[in-house]
Structure formats: C-alpha cells, structure tokens
Write a structure and sequence with these properties.
The chain is of the alpha+beta class. It is built from 11 helices and 11 strands.
C-alpha cells in the first residue's frame, strides 16, 4: 500500500491511497469461490458453475464489495502510519478501480492541528479579588426579604418593582406569531424579562385594557422577529406590591439556618457571601488564565469540530426553552449565533489536551473520592449520596474532568505571570 498526503486549505488534507493488485485479486477470488459453492444457475450443477459465468452474473457486485472492503481496511492503516488525526469523516472518491491495476482512492479530511503550548512571559493574567462592604450585605438581606415576601394587591397606578398580573395578545401586521399571548401572566416591572418597551408601557397604569407597540431587538433569538414591531393588547388585571418577609424564625427555617436572631442572621449571610466570593474569584481568575492562553496560542480549528460544538450549543439552548430541533425552525437560535463561542470552546479543549500531556497530569482514584466527599457535604444524607453517585458513570467522568481541570489551573498559575485585579461585589452582576 502506498500513501501520499497532500495539504489543502488550512487543516484539510487529501490522502491518496494505492492498494496493490494482488490484494484486490485475493479478495475477489475468495468471494467468487464462496459464491460458487452456493450459486444455483439453470443448466449447471450446484458448485460446478464456471468462473466466467459467475463473474458475468455476480462480478460487478463482488467488485463493489471488494473495493469497499479495501477502503475500510486500508484507510485506518493509512492515517495511523502517517500520524494523521482526522477531525472529520473522510470524503472518499475512487480515482482508479481497474482490477488489472492498483486500486487508487482519495480521502479528504480535516485534521486536528499540531499544537505546541506557549506560555507568555509578557502577558499577565488577572488574579481577581472581590471586595464586600456593608452596603453589599444590606442589599443581599433586602433581596432575601423581598424574595421570601408576599405580593399583595394595591389600588393605585403601577410603578417600578411592582408585580402586575396581565393577559396579553400580540400581532405583527395583523398576524399572530409564536409566543404572542398569555393569560394571568405575572410580571415584575423592571425585571427586563420582556422585550424593550413592554414593561415601560405598563408603568403608571391602573387595572384597565389598553394597547402598546414594541419592537423586538435586532439580536433577538428568532430571526423572523428581530427588529420587527409588534402591537399588544394588554388586560392589566392586578397591581401588586411586595410585603417583605420579617427576619424571624420562620425565615430562618426557610433558609435552613440554625440561628436565633438578626445579628446571627447577618453573620450567616456575610459568611455565605464570602464563600460565594471565594468561588467567584477562582472562576474569574480561571477565565482570565484561559483568555491569556488563547491570546498566546493562536491556531486554526477544524470547521467540522466547531460546527459540531455549535450544534450541541444550539440543542442545549433549545432544550432550555422546551424545544427540540424537530419542533424548532432554523430561525430559532440560528446556528451561526453560536459559532464564535463554539470555536473558542474547541480551541480551549484542544489546548487543554496538549497542556495535560505537557504537564503529565493524571487523576488518581483518591482525588475523585476526596471530591465526592466534598460534594456529599451539600446533601442531608452524605452516605446515601456517595452510594448513589458511584453508579453514575457519566457524572463520575464529569467529576474526573473537574479535578483534572483544577490541577491544570494550579499548574498554569505557577507558570504564568499574574497581576492583582480588585473589583467590588456590586460589579459582579455586570460581568
């Protein structure tokens, strides 16, 4: 077998394989012999049909089978012997299938790039530190009081932060559209859960019926609605304001806090915020490390792999709103809206694989066990959780990847240069 590899555009490769004639003849003759023992042809006894008659009747189909088998057998050998790492299924074309000559075919594939990780000596990643002050704690407590409060009807005009109960019915150019209506819909004014202008149009209104006009954003997730003006009929049924929850034993129980008074409540909230901040600091620092790596390591990604990742992202986005590819049109979360994120994800995955080899990182069973122990503390019955998780292979693999990534980040923190980045807790919401 002879193999010639030609470099095409970017990561595309054309693998030209030539299979010797004797390999073809051996397979063909074996198959003809097998047919001879079974063939029933008028005028001939079973097992005594001449070879030329068999070839005339079955030759073409056997020829096609042999060509197929030769490709299936030789292609894996060709890519292995030439250190080719395909990122896509091969597009095969047969260049020569004359049985008297070597069988020649071409397989066009995308390959994974060869990556040699680089570590910048000049680019610093940001090591985040998040500051919490008293106003942040006050805001968190106010938020809890509202979240566990009770909405009560009021007889006045609606204002920002009120909750309204509405029926709405929308049309575009007199035509209905998907998601155009709802009954007894609860909407907090200022939550920005509706399209721009919708909530603003309700502020200052008492229970009544009225019409509003709003325009869908240009980057709306459904292409057919992006930038389009719609008219909505609104039936404002109720205006409600929040009666905040009291800081008492009832609230403590709901929050699963073993505390007695307001002072202990504030301390507990402070501790929970500090734990949240510690996690956020690690995540933001990790993201900065990844961005630094991507800036330093620039390489092409296989289009096929990026497209696969974008498709997975779209499926996930559809699933989150209760849709599948089968019942969602192409205009619902168009695939190209995920391409940039998908390419970044693929680059990081490829880079991680090389970095793990570079640092010779391995995950030991004890590390997984330690991780499971930490996870189990979040549950009422840690032992029951441990027993359950041991049977969840997919989840265990995710845990292994988390532990692997944690080790990699620790290695990178020691290799790369850092600079301190201090931000306020209130800034987290804008990141």
């Amino acid at each position: 077998m002879k193999v010639n590899v030609k470099k095409l555009k970017d990561l595309e490769r054309k693998i030209i394989v030539s299979v010797p004639t004797d390999e073809y003849e051996s397979k063909f003759n074996t198959k003809i012999t097998n047919v001879k023992t079974k063939a029933k042809i008028d005028g001939f006894r079973k097992g005594s049909v001449p070879k030329d008659v068999l070839e005339q009747r079955y030759g073409q189909s056997i020829h096609n089978e042999v060509i197929n088998e030769l490709i299936q057998e030789s292609y894996p050998k060709a890519i292995t012997e030439n250190n080719i790492r395909p990122a896509s299924s091969p597009q095969v074309s047969i260049d020569s299938e004359d049985p008297k000559k070597p069988i020649v075919y071409s397989a066009t594939v995308e390959v994974f790039p060869e990556i040699k990780p680089k570590f910048s000596r000049w680019t610093n990643y940001e090591e985040f530190e998040i500051e919490i002050d008293d106003s942040d704690i006050d805001h968190a407590i106010d938020d809890i009081k509202k979240r566990y409060g009770e909405w009560k009807d009021v007889k006045r005009e609606s204002k920002l932060d009120d909750q309204v109960v509405i029926d709405f019915f929308g049309k575009i150019n007199g035509e209905e559209f998907e998601g155009n209506s709802a009954k007894d819909f609860k909407l907090v004014l200022g939550s920005n859960s509706m399209i721009p202008g919708f909530e603003d149009s309700i502020i200052g209104k008492k229970p009544s019926k009225f019409s509003i006009k709003c325009t869908f954003p240009n980057d709306y997730f459904k292409n057919d609605l992006a930038g389009v003006e719609a008219e909505f009929e609104i039936d404002l049924k109720n205006v409600q304001e929040i009666t905040e929850a009291n800081i008492d034993e009832e609230l403590f129980k709901k929050l699963q806090m073993e505390i007695k008074d307001k002072s202990e409540f504030r301390n507990e909230i402070t501790e929970r915020m500090k734990n949240e901040v510690a996690t956020q600091e690690k995540e933001l620092t990790k993201e900065s490390i990844y961005e630094t790596l991507l800036k330093t390591n620039n390489f092409k990604t296989p289009n096929s792999t990026v497209n696969e990742q974008a498709d997975l992202m779209r499926k996930d986005a559809l699933m989150r709103i209760g849709h599948t590819e089968e019942n969602a049109g192409d205009d619902l979360f168009p695939i190209d809206t995920f391409t940039e994120k998908a390419e970044k994800r693929v680059k990081l995955d490829l880079l991680f694989a090389e970095l793990i080899n570079h640092f010779k990182i391995k995950v030991e069973k004890q590390q997984i066990d330690d991780f499971i122990d930490e996870e189990s503390k979040r549950y009422k019955d840690p032992d029951q959780y441990k027993q359950w998780i041991l049977g969840q292979q997919q989840q265990l693999e995710q845990f292994r990847m988390i532990v692997l990534e944690k080790q990699l980040v620790e290695k990178l923190e020691n290799v790369l240069k850092s600079k301190k980045k201090v931000i306020k807790f209130s800034e987290l919401a804008n990141r």
